[in-house]
């Protein structure tokens, strides 16, 4: 089968988006372990790169939700996928310049929605997939915060008679594993999303007759996200791990374990959620367990504003790109 130039461009844009996903979301897994100085930034990035790669290969349920559950494949074209990827790359790169952790998950979903709406209107949207998206908002926001709050509160109660030094030393060891768990979980959810988009592009181009996710697609996506992760995301890492609150090893472990557990639960049910939201709300929950004012809320609200803006901006950008492309062609 001939490979069209448009398919090649679409695949390259998807891989660019996956690279940006790994680049800007690296801090999700390692911001706390770097902030507590348990790992050096470079070692932490290598750790996250390996676990992100392995997590991306761990399943396909989230990929199926994104590839065929958000928009009806028969209602969109490769042009719509291109527009969605361009919107995501532009917005995520712009936000990263200011150190703001945006959600590539929401950027992806919003971009696909805006592009599909431009081509086919509301009929292009799949309600079954959107129910999972809405569930993901609840998972990332409430379970992330409450999980961090609960685990940290339990640790305060259980370890109140243990010396501070012993708690710190033990937490440093545990945090190495919890950061790896977080990186692996990021791969199982965020990494899979772009696997789903790649599979969708292959279906739209006629390479496959039905929606399927071959293993080689998983490998390509995993390698691309791993490469993006290796570049880190230092401004975002600093804002998450140092500016929003002061994180100690025990708090870092609690935040990572709560966030990673939430993400794993969502991935099991094929629910696409924002790993950025989940780890940030977990950090807020952990800090709030000590006292509510431990969170620097002006910084937190700055991050929240970036989350809120992601949906309308990426949807509008993708919509406009499709319309402009239609006029030009």
Describe this structure in words.
There is one protein chain. The chain is mostly helical and 329 residues long. It is built from 12 helices and no strands. The protein is elongated, with a radius of gyration of 19 Å. The protein starts with a helix and ends with a helix. The model has no long low-confidence stretch (mean pLDDT 84).
Properties at a glance:
single chain, 329 residues, mainly alpha, 79% helix, elongated
Can you summarize this structure?
The protein contains twelve helices and no strands.
Rg, alpha carbons = 19 Å
N-to-C order of helices and strands? HHHHHHHHHHHH
Secondary-structure-based class equals mainly alpha
On the 0 to 100 scale, the average pLDDT is 84
Distance between the termini: 25 Å
Helix percentage range: over 70%
Shape descriptor reads elongated
Largest sheet composition: none
Number of helices: 12
Number of strands: 0
Question: pLDDT under 50 segments (min length 5)?
Answer: none
